[in-house]
Amino acid sequence: MSTDPAAAQTNAATPIDGVAEATRELALGASVELTPRQVAAADNLAKDLPLGTRVYVPFVPGADWQDTVGACERICASGMIAVPHLVARSVANRAELDDRLRGLAEASVTEIMLVAGDRARPVGAFRDTLDVLDSGALVEHGMTRIGIAGYPEGHPAVGPAPLDAALAKKREYAAATGTEMWMVSQFAFEPETVIDWLDAIWRAYDTIPVRVGMAGPARLSTLMAFAARCGIGASASALIRRPGVLRLLNPRLAPDGMLNALGRHRVASPESPLSGIHLFTFGGLPQTSRWLRAMAGVGTAHVVDFHDAKANGER
After folding, report:
1. Helix and strand tally (H, E) in the chain?
2. Which residues, listed in sequence order, are joined to residue 214 by a DSSP beta bridge?
3. Helix crossing, 285-296 with 303-313: angle to 10°?
4. Does residue 241 register a pLDDT over 60?
5. Which pLDDT value is given to residue 74?
6. Cα angle value 85/121/72 (rounded, 5°)
7. Chain centroid to CA 291: how far?
8. pLDDT at site 282
9. What secondary structure letter does DSSP report for 136?
10. Residue 102 pairs with which residues in a beta bridge?
11. What local confidence, expressed as pLDDT, does residue 255 receive?
């Protein structure tokens, strides 16, 4: 999941074409986030997503872990790559952690998204992701492909200094254990904020790939509700009061402006850690799929077009 600088080079004669191609590649290589319920409700995941798409499966307090495992099994059986969230504060003890990792391995899972979780208090011994890493369980179970979270607009409960210190420790862990580690960011609405954050990540950690989180096409009320839940409601409220906001959200409330800005950034800054985009499917998988097809320029009539474009154009 590393950035390919060659793919971001601009054709000096036709720079606009270079940006268009970069934007298309980002759409083709997008990962998505689907709840177990969304996975279960999908008639055929391969109808909506290119084969090989990474599908992240979140886990919320009170959910049944077996629903996550079942969703991962279906994702893998559909020709996708399942990336379940392993939530540190929702794991009671080392025995339960071992049990969950064994279950994921049996479901053909080879990579995870490691997050602390939203619980005010942990249910057991793991206070945060560093506690899980320090346990040694991930390496023991062969789980050496790990995504971690990033926050372009800051964390609602943790300051910048502790976040930076934690990231440094995670990078040390990755180097010491041979773990492939990447970052998936919380979704944001302002391209300038995200690009400034990418630049800061590159200056501090030039070797960590970043997938930028984006809110997929959805109603404005839905986006605002999720923004408030994720701690970025204030910035979302400020954004919709700005002149020209519909150029960012688009009349369909789709993130065209963010994607186009990231395409320009990839061309202008080939050294950027930007490795892809990650779609939060607040408006549903079919709507997200239609938007990705349109941005990738492959149409909506033939599923095979989406798959072939992915196979021939995505690293």
Report:
1. 15, 8
2. 279
3. 60
4. no
5. 97
6. 15
7. 17
8. 87
9. T
10. none
11. 86
Task: Band the pLDDT of 118: cuts 50, 70, 90.
Answer: confident
What b-and-e string marks burial along 79-97, b requiring 16 or more CB atoms within 10 Å of the CB? ebbbbbbbbbbbbeeeebb
Cα 220-225-228 angle, rounded to 5 deg: 120
Classified as helix, coil or strand, 124 is coil
- Which residue's structure tokens are 């939530």? 87
β partners of residue 182: 147
Q: Model's pTM, two decimal places?
A: 0.84
Q: Which of 159, 173, 196, 215 has the alpha carbon at shortest distance from 274?
A: 196
Question: Residue 75 burial (CB < 10 Å; 0-12/13-18/19+)?
Answer: buried
How many Å apart are CA 121 and CA 102, to the nearest integer? 25
Rounded Cα–Cα distance for residues 182 and 194 (Å): 16
Q: Tell me how long the chain is.
A: 315
Two structure tokens written together for 32: 């998505």
Q: pLDDT tens digits, residue range 201-214?
A: 999 887 899 999 99
Angle at 195 between CA 189 and CA 197, to 5 degrees: 95
Q: 3-state class of 147 per DSSP?
A: strand
